[in-house]
Amino acid sequence: MRALILNGPNLNRLGKREPDAYGTFTLAELEQELEQFAYANDIKLTCSQSNHEGEIIDWLQQAERQSFDGVVLNAGAYTHTSIAIRDAIASIQVPVIEVHISNVHKREEFRHHSYLAPVVEGQITGFGKDVYFLGLHALLLRNQRG
C-alpha cells in the first residue's frame, strides 16, 4: 500500500506552537514514528507539509496520478476556510482521511466547521499524534477490504 501524509499550515511548528493543544513532539519526530509504523505494516509512505494552499492541492492531485492508495490529511486551518482544498479532494478518486491533533470541537467555534468533512472518507480528531496512526490504520483496513 502507498500512502501520503499531508500536513498543512503551521504544522511545521509542532513542538513550538501551542504545546497545550498540539503536544511537544516535532514534525520530524512524528514523521520518523510514522515511517517506522509504515515499515512494520508494509506501507510505502510519503510525508509532505506546506503552508501554501495551492501546493496542498497539487499534492492531492498528484496522489491520484501517482496511484497512492490513500491520503491522511491534516489541513490545519484550511479545514475551516478552503473550498479549493475541498474541491480538490472531491475531484480525486483517492480516499482521504481528515485528521486533527487537537479536538477541534473543544476549541474556538470557528474550528467546529470543516469544509472537508463532506468529501473525505472520515475524520479522526483529538487523539494527539495518534490520529495519524489511526488514519493509516483506517486506510489499511479499507485497502484490505477492497
UniProtKB/TrEMBL annotation:
Q: Which GO terms describe its molecular function?
A: 3-dehydroquinate dehydratase activity
- Keywords linked to the UniProt accession: Amino-acid biosynthesis, Aromatic amino acid biosynthesis, Lyase
What function does this protein fulfil?
Catalyzes a trans-dehydration via an enolate intermediate.
Q: Which Pfam families match?
A: DHquinase_II (PF01220)
Q: In which pathway does it act?
A: Metabolic intermediate biosynthesis; chorismate biosynthesis; chorismate from D-erythrose 4-phosphate and phosphoenolpyruvate: step 3/7
Q: Which reaction does it catalyse?
A: 3-dehydroquinate = 3-dehydroshikimate + H2O
Originating species: Planococcus halotolerans
The protein's name in its UniProt record: 3-dehydroquinate dehydratase
Question: Which PANTHER family does the UniProt record give?
Answer: CATABOLIC 3-DEHYDROQUINASE
Q: Where is the active site?
A: 22, 100
Any keyword Amino-acid biosynthesis?
yes
The text of the family note is: Belongs to the type-II 3-dehydroquinase family.
InterPro entries reported in the protein's UniProt record: DHquinase_II (IPR001874), DHquinase_II_CS (IPR018509), DHquinase_II_sf (IPR036441)
- The answer to whether the entry has keyword Ubl conjugation is no
Enzyme class at the top of the EC tree:
lyase
One of the GO BP terms on file:
aromatic amino acid family biosynthetic process
Which gene is this protein's source?
aroQ
Q: Domain of life of the organism in this record? A: Bacteria
Q: Where does substrate bind?
A: 74, 80, 87, 101-102, 111
UniProt EC number: 4.2.1.10
How it assembles, according to the record, is: Homododecamer.
